[in-house]
Every structure is written in C-alpha cells, then in structure tokens.
Design goal:
965 residues, alpha+beta, 7-stranded mixed sheet, 6-stranded mixed sheet, 22 helices
Length: 965
C-alpha cells in the first residue's frame, strides 16, 4: 500500500483496518479513509467514467468538489468517493460504463466527439418527423449514471433549530480567528465546517518553506475553539443556502439544522482551479490541493514521479511537500515569468527540482487505455493561450496543477452579493452583501496567512459591535498580497480533449462554438452547452468559461460574469427536506375536556384534535356510533382550528369579490355564503364560509391547514390592489364548536335566548350575533355534516365554558362529542370535498362539480381567465362518488383507479358507512368513466382489483332536507 508514515494521516486510524470491495475485488483501507483514499492507497486510480465520452476519471479535488469520483453503493447511486467514509464490508462498484469499468465499450464515443458538438441534440433527433420515438429508447438507455435500489427502506431523518448571535460558515484560519474573537467578546457562536477536521487549509496546505507553521497554528487555534464555552461546533456539516435575515439550512448527517443568526460570517475559502490543456482529465492529473490532502489527511503517497504545474507560489510549496514525502518531483512548471517569492524557487532547486518558467503543460500523455497519466508535454508560453511549436516530454505518474483560486461565492450571491472581476489580480471579488452578512479570508481576496487571520478577527469584531459587544481589538495593518491567479491558464489543443467542465465533458471549442451559435450571454451559454450544470455546479468551470466567453464576444471578464448561483450549495436528499420537523404544537381551548372524555388525538395542521372518543383499537366502532348519534340525536365537535379571518373596511366586499369565485358585493347582511378560492392557474386552493356581519365587516373561515397561506394571499394581493381594507387573522383569538343533529336546536334554545332560533327566524345559511350561556357569540347555520347544525364562535378564553355549558344543556338529549374522523365520514356521506384531500395541485372547479360556485357575471376574480380556458377544453378527469358492497375489500386513500392497463385516477376518500350499509368514497376517474352507473376498477391492497359503482352525489339525503330543518 502507498501509505506514508506519521505524522501524515490526520484522519486515519492505522490500528483499525477495514476490508471492503470495489467492482468485485477485495481491498483493505483504514478507519478514517474515504472510499477514494483507500482505493488510491491500493494503487487503484480509475474510479469512474465521464458522463458523455466515458473517459477514465480519477480524483480531482479530494474534497467532493467534482464528479470524477462518483460511485455506486448497494443502496445509493452517485456517491462521491472522495468524501464518503469507508466502512467495513462496504461493497462499492463503478457506474456509467458498458462492460466493465476498466474496459468500457462505450469509450469509443470519445472518438466521435467531432460528430457530437455542443448542442447537437437540439439540432438532431427530431427530424424527419417521428424520429424522436426511434431515438428516445436509445438515449434513455444511455442516460443516467447509477442504479436505484428498489428495495430501499427509508431511514430516519429529522430537523432541529438553532438560534445564535454569530454563525460562521467555514472553520479555516479565518473562521477560527473570527470564532475566537466573537466568542471572547461574549457572543454565542456557531461554527460550521464541511470537513471532518477544523482548520480548513491548515489541515493540508503548506505556508512556509520549513513546513512547520500550519500544523502548529492549527493545533493552537483548534484547542482554543474546542475549549471555548461560547462556541458550538458542527463538523461534516454543510450550510446549503442563505435566506433572508441569515436563515441558514445546515445539513449534518441525517439532520437538517434550521439556523437563525443575528450576524453571519462566511469564511468558506476558495476553490483551487485547474489548468485547461489536452487530457487534463486523466487519472493521476489532480489539483495540487488534492495531492496535499491525500498526503496530510490520509497518508497516501499520490505518485512516484510528479510534475507540478503552477500559476502561483502555492505550487512551489506543494512541490516541497511532495519531495518531503518521497515523491520524485521531475519538474515544476510555472506559467509565470518568475515566482512572487524568489526564495521558494531557491528552495525547490536545492532539492534538484528543475523549474520551467513561463511554460505550461500542453498535453498530458497516457498509457494504453488512458487509465493513467504517463508523462507531460511541456511548452513555452508565447502569447495568451498560445505555446511554442517545440517542447519537451517528461515521464511522470502524477501531475499536480493549480491555476489559482475562485472564491466560494455561491452562498454570497444567493444573498444578493455581486461578483466583480479584478483585471489586475485576475480574480473575482465579492461586494454588495446585505447588513448582517460579512466575508473573511480567501473568499474576501486575502490569501496571505497573516492577512487571513487578521481579516477574520476584524470582521468578527465588527459583527459583535452590531450586537452591542466590544471585541477589544484594533485595526491591523494588512501585508502586501502576491497575485495568486494566473490570468489565462487555458491552452487549447488542435486535437481537443482540453476540458473546461469535467462533469459534462465540455472542451474549449464547445464553449467557443456556443457563442458562435449566437449564445453570447454566459447564462445562455450555460443552458445551451450545459456547462456548470453537473454535480460540481461550476466550481471549476465558472472561471474558465467566463474567460472564454469574454474573449469570444469581445467583452471583459467583468462584463461577462458567471452564471447565477441558486440553492442548494450541494445536492441534498429529499429525506432531509421531508424529515421529521418540529412544528408549533397547539391545543384548542377545549383540549382538556377532550382528554378527560377519552379522545384519541390526531394532528390537524399544527393542532391536536380528537379523531374520535374511545380506544385506538376500536376506531371503527367508535366512529360509527358517533356518526349514528349525530344523525339520530345530537353531537358536539370542537372546530376551533378552522381558520378565521376578519375583513373590515369600505373595500372589504371588493377584496372578497376579487379573491373568491362567488360574488360578495351584494351578499345580504347576516347571511353566509360558500367561499371557494382559486389561484392564478384556476386551481382550487381553499374553501370556507363567509358571513357578512355588517356592511363593511365580513367573517371568513378557511381550512385548518390553509388559513396562514390564505391570509398571506390576501395580504399579497392587497399590497398590489391598495384597497381600503383591514385583514386580521383571528384563528387563535376565537374558539368554535359545531352543534349538529336533529335535536341541536332544542339544546341551543336552553342557552340562547336573545336570538330567534326557529326555522323561519334563523334559516339555513343565516348568521346571527348573540349570547350563548351568557357568552357573546357569532352563530352560523351550516351543514357540513348534513344535519341541522350551528357553528358557534366565541372568544378563545370562553371556549371551555361554552363546551361545558353545551354538554350540560344537552345531557337530557343524550348529547355526545364526536371527532374529526367522524366528521369526515359524515361529510363524505354528503359528498362534500375536503380541500387538499379531495383536491390536488391541478384540481380546477370543473373537475369537482363546483361550477355552481363561480360568479359568471363578475368581471374579475383571481383565476377567472384560467378557469375559462380550462372549461373550454375537454374534461380529462372528474371527482366521482363510488360505492362498494359491505364486506368488499375497502380501498384506501391513494389507491389507483384503472382504465385498462392505464391509470386514470386515484381514491381520495373512502369509508364504510353504517348509515348507508355500504362502502362509499370519492375518487378521480377518467371523464369517460364518470357517469352514474358505470363501473370503475380500483386496485386495492395486494394488487386485487375491485369494481366500484359510480353514483350520483350526495350519498345521503340528496334533497338536503335534514340540514334545512
């Protein structure tokens, strides 16, 4: 194995060997290894094949910043081998090959690259007409990299919340300095580091000829940070985005932290940049920082004979590292006329390393099969991007390159930061950051170690001063900075294979040809050529692309810029987004009464509500008994969680007229009206009841889970319309119950004497204000469960007293509480839809027979135009009611409705109804399956198909006589 002796190998434990396999062959690594470092230690350099041409690829960055190390694990594809920790018994395999990884039959595609120029797929495959159907199966067979594990079992993921004074992204020298400065001033600090070790570049880079300073400084800073009570550390954690007011999603393992910081400092460093030349993608060609990481972190000797290609002084320091660890450095090739620090050249030449100044590697040579670099062709640089005719060839098995650095700008641009190109320094600088967000270290253009440390302290001192704290440090003079970026590290070769984007196999000519095709803006170049769209998201391609586009279009690099950076910073799993969250946990004012009555609680949005009353294992019996009681006598349900919105003002009716599909301007006083809301696309997004309590005062209910969104919609639209109206979300201020059943009027008459409760005095859909049990209340005659019913809304502090009074008054009528599950059964019997259960993100009113709820004479409401367009098109699906005989296999929500071999819809609601003696449900079916009397096949558990009968809605009391008593 190519292992170096200690102190190399900061991450590995030499006493814990781990056996694993790669492509069916057994290997041994060490605890702390990544998959890639373990394979390289065993001399295995070919890890993957490139996306387009299937070229052999090995590690480039050893930091998860590229796609060269994508491998397949048993349960997960597209895993970065250079960051994935090695585990005992792990079975790893290559991916994206035809045959074997070593002998990929699709590697011949590279020989036909001239026939696959950039954007060729836009101009091919579609003609003659119908040819896409021929090409599609072939392309799909070649597309995709890894293989999904169809037997994968979801794992537990969750979320946590952190609130800190200062969040620092990046624990390199600047981040450590900033953390100590802020913490010493008394601030609560969160330090976020993507790598397993604190220290950033201090863990692998060399900063002095002797090579002693980095490790000594790292130990000193890390000890101080880890021992500080005010600093919380997250390692192997990625800050994946920046949102307004320093809201940071930070992913660590299977947990997503939602961080809110008063001040945020990004000290994320900069990306080492490759040089563009022929065959710069061969295994064995890597960034200088990657070779240093292999040695310092994993004790892996990266090669026997190396050539270092440099655009800055760091290349000389890397050459010293390589030589110190026994690698023969055949040459140091410096693209500049001379190093900034002449003592480095002296130190290198003392070791017998020849320096080739003003030169570059023009081509990397390779062994048969291109599985590893075998040498280099060195040429003198004669002009920008041009080299001499004659050169020299050197044998080597390692080529280390660094053209300079690109700041880690992604989070900062998400925050509104602007990139400006400094022609003198040949690098991008960041400005225009919002208040509360600052940058420190090399991301801010500081590369000298002393300047980096001072910058971290200075920025932190300013951050804590915004919190009213004093760091007690003054300004420190900055040392002069040597230029670290070579201005044109791009050397096109007439034979091509000079890669700008390793992820997408894009060469120099591809970028130039994109501009010749008319795509002169870098944003359009990205979309036409796919540059920067791979896993590395432009980390190594953004800067050379900007240079090439600028040159091809006759503009400056600053005018050209780079493409827009959007979240996330790196790929995140859906499991992180879907993982368990911690929402506000709310109880209604009657919660204690439900618990005392033996309620089985269930979540409803952020609320806890009774599902039914009784034992969990007796759900069906309890629910049917409660439903029968409401139908025959009287029941009481807590509906406090319904959204409540007070809309007041001279333009209140106008606002509702524009937001909802029904007309409201002429709505009579003390009457309610069904309120259906659609979005701009004509999609149903909410419903409720609107009661007009006064000329300029409406009380509108909304769904439990949708009220916050509807309130936001109202505020958003009125910000545009500027109507004279006040909108208040009163959901938490009110408590409400629904008293329902044929005996409900008799119960209410015992407690409400100032309202005429007779059928004529308080008809169906009327609203009244009065007192119930001495409590001021809003009353509405509604029929969601299909019975005579009253919704009673009171101030939340009176909720428990109202409940007690109604239960006491109803005792002689055998009143009993009923839960949400029972309410859903009762409404299902009436065929009433529940928004977001019986609707989805595509449902428009015509699909759920809600045409009656549309004000056809209104000149405008949100979604009106879209609904008209949708109604002019043939209906593709419809929500229908269906029945099955008692004892049939019962469909569950989500079960599929079939039409021959195709899927035509799905079940949205289904329950057994004891009242009707059959299974009833709602489901989407094809428009040609929706006529009453038709049979629709539904695939239930176990793959069995049952034939349900489509029926006319509602299932129960079709003439609505019971609710209008």
């Amino acid at each position: 194995m190519n292992r170096l002796p200690a102190p190399m190998g900061l991450l590995i434990d030499r006493d814990q060997p781990l056996r694993f396999s790669f492509d069916g062959r057994d290997y041994q690594g060490l605890k702390g290894d990544s998959i890639a470092s373990a394979l390289l230690a065993n001399g295995r350099w070919l890890l993957s094949r490139s996306f387009k041409y299937h070229r052999p690829r090995g590690p480039l960055s050893m930091a998860g910043q590229d796609a060269n190390t994508l491998v397949q694990l048993p349960d997960e594809p597209n895993v970065l081998a250079d960051t994935q920790a090695l585990q005992a018994g792990l079975a790893v395999s290559g991916q994206n090959f035809n045959g074997s990884l070593d002998n990929d039959r699709d590697a011949y595609l590279g020989k036909f690259s001239r026939f696959m120029p950039v954007g060729f797929y836009y101009r091919s495959f579609y003609k003659p007409k119908g040819m896409w159907k021929v090409w599609e199966p072939l392309i799909r067979k070649k597309a995709g990299l890894g293989v999904l594990d169809m037997n994968f079992k979801p794992q537990y993921y969750d979320k946590a919340y952190l609130f800190v004074d200062v969040a620092i992204v990046g624990a390199g020298p600047a981040g450590l300095s900033a953390a100590l400065t802020a913490a010493n001033a008394g601030a609560k600090v969160l330090l976020i580091e993507q790598q397993p070790l604190l220290g950033g570049s201090l863990t692998y880079a060399r900063f002095d000829v002797e090579g002693r300073r980095a490790e000594a400084l790292r130990r000193e800073l890390v000890a101080a940070v880890e021992g500080h009570a005010n600093i919380q550390i997250l390692t192997q954690a990625t800050c994946n985005a920046w949102f307004s007011e320093n809201y940071l999603p930070v992913i660590q393992g299977r947990r997503m932290y939602k961080v809110r910081a008063q001040q945020c400092i990004v000290s994320a460093g900069s990306f080492d940049q490759p040089v563009v030349f022929r065959n710069n993608d061969l295994p064995g060609v890597m960034l200088t920082s990657a070779a240093q990481r292999l040695m310092k972190l994993y004790a892996v000797k990266p090669g026997q004979r190396a050539v270092v290609l440099a655009g800055n002084d760091d290349g000389y320091l890397a050459a010293l590292d390589l030589a110190e660890q026994g690698v023969q450095v055949a040459a140091l090739v410096d693209m500049r006329p001379r190093p900034a620090d002449a003592t480095l050249q002296v130190a290198v030449e003392k070791l017998g390393i020849s320096c080739h100044l003003g030169s570059t590697v023009y081509e990397a040579l390779h062994e048969k099969g291109m599985r590893h670099v075998s040498g280099v062709d060195i040429r003198r640089i004669t002009a920008q991007g041009q080299v001499g005719e004659q050169g020299m060839q050197l044998d080597c098995d390692l080529l280390c390159m660094s053209a300079g650095y690109m700041p880690v700008y992604q989070l900062l641009c998400q925050a509104g930061g602007k990139l400006a190109y400094d022609e003198q320094r040949a690098e991008f600088a960041i400005s225009g950051l919002p208040d509360g967000l600052a940058i420190a270290g090399s991301v801010s253009g500081r590369h000298d170690l002393d300047n980096v440390l001072a910058d971290g302290a200075r920025v932190a001192a300013h951050a804590v001063s915004m919190l009213g704290l004093d760091a007690g440090i003054g300004e420190t003079a900055q040392r002069g900075e040597a230029r670290v970026n070579f201005d044109w590290p791009i050397f096109p070769h007439p034979k091509g294979k000079d890669f700008v984007d390793f992820d997408e196999d894009l060469q120099v000519l591809d970028i130039v040809n994109a501009t010749r095709s008319g795509y002169r803006d870098v944003q359009l170049v990205k979309r036409f050529s796919t540059v920067g769209m791979g896993p590395s998201q432009g980390r190594h391609s953004a800067l050379p692309t900007a240079r090439l586009v600028a040159r091809a279009t006759g503009r400056s690099i600053g005018e050209t810029g780079v493409t827009t950076a959007r979240p996330p910073f790196e790929a995140e799993k859906l499991a992180h987004v879907a993982g368990r969250a911690f929402d506000p946990y709310r109880h209604t004012a009657m919660h204690s009464r439900h618990v005392a009555a033996g309620a089985k609680l269930m979540p409803a949005g952020i609320w806890q509500r009774p599902a039914f009353y009784g034992k969990a294992e007796e759900r069906e019996r309890c629910m049917q008994e409660e439903a029968r009681h409401v139908r025959e006598q009287v029941g009481l349900i807590d509906v406090s969680t319904l959204g409540g919105l007070d809309v007041r003002g001279p333009d209140a009716a106008e606002l509702l007229e524009r937001l909802y599909t029904m007309p409201f301007k002429k709505q009579p006083l003390l009457r309610t009206r069904y309120a259906l809301m659609t979005n701009e696309h004509g999609v149903v997004i909410d419903d409720g009841v609107c009661a007009r309590l006064a000329d300029n005062h409406f009380y509108v209910t909304a769904t439990t889970s949708g009220v916050d969104r509807i309130y936001q919609q109202m505020i958003k639209w009125n910000a545009q319309w500027r109507l004279n109206v006040d909108i208040t979300n009163v959901t938490a201020a009110l408590a409400a119950v629904n008293l329902a059943g044929p005996l409900s009027r008799q119960v209410l008459e015992k407690l409400c004497t100032d309202v005429d409760l007779s059928a004529a005095g308080f008809p169906y859909l009327a609203a009244r204000t009065g007192t119930v049990a001495g409590i001021a209340a809003r009353l509405m005659r509604v029929g969601f469960v299909g019975e005579l019913g009253y919704e009673i809304h009171v101030q939340a502090r009176h909720g428990a007293r109202l409940w007690d009074a109604l239960m006491e008054a109803g005792a002689e009528f055998a009143i009993r509480p009923f839960g949400v599950e029972t309410q859903r059964l009762l409404r299902l019997e009436k065929g009433h839809v529940i928004i977001s259960q019986d609707t989805d993100g595509m449902t428009h009113p015509g699909e759920i027979d809600m045409q009656w709820a549309i004000g056809r004479k209104k000149p405008f409401f949100v979604g009106k135009r879209s609904i008209e367009i949708l109604e002019a098109q043939p209906l593709k699906r419809k929500l229908v009611g269906f029945t099955l005989a008692k004892g049939s296999p019962q469909p569950l929500e989500g079960h599929l409705v079939l039409k021959g071999p195709d899927i035509s819809g799905n079940v949205t609601s289904c329950e057994y109804s004891a009242t009707l003696g059959q299974i009833i449900g709602l489901a989407y079916a094809g428009a040609d399956q929706a006529e009453p009397g038709m049979q629709i096949p539904i695939r239930v558990e176990g793959g069995q198909v049952v034939q349900a009968t489509v029926v006319q809605l509602p299932f129960f009391d079709p003439d609505n006589q019971r609710q209008e008593l």
